[in-house]
């Protein structure tokens, strides 16, 4: 799945399949300007920052179990969000500090460092990477992902895929090659 935020006409947090199908709103109320988003892949939770409401909130992948982690002035100007173990990590764009927030109680907020020009944060650690099972976009014997000549996108499950073409090309009638 692909998870994303939008605060155009109607602010929301959404999810869809990697090929863009099955687009679903998972949060569409009491939300104003959702920006940064992070996933807890193990427990299947979506965290986001709402910069208008000065809040960090969470829901499960279906949009249930919503609650506020932290709200208020101490978390103004947040951008970027990452989850690792018991903490959320974010960047305060006002003073360029990296903050650590306890994601279970929201009371333990600690500045960790100051980084000039920081706008995003990521955690790279083996435990944050889920094991990848065999899937429909694996490279075939000819070196083509999922048998697609350009781009392979997973569909509703790991066994299904959709082929797409780069800009300037159209998908052939075989559904795999681009012309």
TrEMBL record:
InterPro entries: 6-blade_b-propeller_TolB-like, Cueball_EGF_LRP_Nidogen, LDLR_classB_rpt. Pfam families: FXa_inhibition, Ldl_recept_b. One of its GO terms (cellular component) is plasma membrane. Coiled coil: none annotated. GO terms for biological process: canonical Wnt signaling pathway. LDL-receptor class B repeats lie at residues 1-43, 44-87. GO terms for molecular function: Wnt receptor activity; Wnt-protein binding. SMART domains: LY (SM00135). This is LRP1B protein. The lineage of its organism: Eukaryota, Metazoa, Chordata, Craniata, Vertebrata. The gene is Lrp1b_2.
């Amino acid at each position: 799945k692909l998870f994303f935020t939008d605060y155009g006409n109607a602010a929301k947090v959404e999810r869809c399949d990697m090929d863009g199908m099955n687009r679903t709103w998972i949060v569409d109320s009491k939300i104003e300007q959702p920006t940064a988003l992070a996933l807890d892949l193990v427990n299947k939770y979506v965290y986001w920052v709402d910069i208008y409401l000065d809040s960090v909130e969470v829901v499960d992948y279906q949009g249930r179990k919503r609650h506020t982690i932290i709200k208020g002035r101490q978390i103004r100007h947040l951008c970027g969000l990452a989850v690792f173990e018991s903490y959320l990590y974010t960047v305060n764009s006002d003073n360029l500090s990296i903050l650590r927030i306890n994601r279970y109680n929201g009371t333990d907020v600690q500045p960790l460092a100051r980084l000039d020009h920081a706008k995003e944060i990521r955690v790279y650690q083996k435990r944050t990477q889920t094991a990848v099972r065999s899937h429909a976009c694996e490279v075939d014997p000819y070196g083509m992902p999922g048998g697609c000549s350009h781009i392979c996108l997973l569909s509703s499950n790991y066994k299904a895929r959709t082929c797409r073409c780069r800009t300037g090309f159209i998908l052939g009638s075989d559904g795999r090659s681009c012309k």
